[in-house]
Amino acid sequence: MRPFSYVSAPDVPAALQAVAEPGAKFLGGGTNLVDLMRQDIEHPGTVVDITRLPLTAVEELPGGGLRIGALARNSQVAGHPLLRARYPMLAQAILNGASAQLRNMATIGGNLLQRTRCLYFYDRAAACNKREPGAGCAAAGGFTRNHAILGVSEHCFAAHPSDLCVALAALDATVEVESTRGVRRIPIGEFHRLPGDTPHVETTLEADELITAVDLPPLPVAANSRYRKVRDRASYAFALVSVAAALRVSEGRVAEGRVAEVRLALGGVATKPWRATEAERALLGASATAESFAHAADAELATARPTPDNAFKIELTRRTIVATLAGLGKDSA
Ligand code: SF4
Hints:
Blueprint: E1 5-8, H1 12-19, E2 24-27, H2 33-38, E3 46-49, E4 58-60, E5 66-69, H3 74-78, H4 81-86, H5 88-95, H6 100-105, H7 108-112, H8 119-122, H9 164-171, E6 174-179, E7 182-187, H10 188-191, E8 210-216, E9 225-230, E10 241-249, E11 259-267, E12 274-275, H11 277-283, H12 290-301, H13 312-332
Parallel strand pairs: 1-3, 2-3
Antiparallel strand pairs: 4-5, 5-8, 6-7, 6-8, 9-10, 10-11, 11-12
Helix pairs in contact: 5-9, 11-12, 12-13
The protein binds iron/sulfur cluster.
């Protein structure tokens, strides 16, 4: 690890001032940044410790939403009774990520910024456009079983690793950030970027902006929601495919058994947390049957660009979407 300066910020203005230093980075739980520093992937000149900032609360918003402080720990958020009742998919997504020890340290704000687990990104001997712009991509033609099939570019097709962010995408969360220029609110769908030809730029967050909170809108359909993760091991593994879904099926004579409301997002298969808008469009008003769910999955996966190593993800995604929605259909009937 390279030498760096350490600053512990007592409040938000002090944190914003300290991060204005070129090469400075915020340190929350440290569960990703410290690994990256140890491996010489990240080398901030100054680490600004923000763990003393008062951004840890989970609070009710008027109208039924929730505000999660950026420094709330993952385990604290997953156990919050209101969150578990109103947004079960989010609690399940968090509990499906990492290990209990990591969830006790990792923060919500940090989770939004965690970086890919592409093996070549961590191997400094391998070419990687994300680590070194313009260097090339060693994964192309390499081992790509865990890589993305949606949102890929010729410059990078690394999968986004977060579980939490997949649920946030399905819920239309908003990320609140602050800098010396003021407060900005970023819809979650605009927070993470597709790789395009600049895969090293992963979010729309500026270097001097601090994530202060994540807001969840009031969303009654989310009470009937689920996060389903398929992975190589039963725990402590990244998703091959994950699905965050919420569903409401109509009752009454006119539209009984039809999809009245649906939220769907995918993880493990895309370069950013992937809101499945094509599938949602296909599902609205359709009969809530396995056949419709499979048809919607096919609509979403029409643009998939798999490699021979990860082509299995297409069928696995399709089946996971169908199983998740079928389970929710039974619960909402
Ligand atoms: Fe780097 Fe992306 Fe290629 Fe992986 S897929 S080696 S992260 S450019």
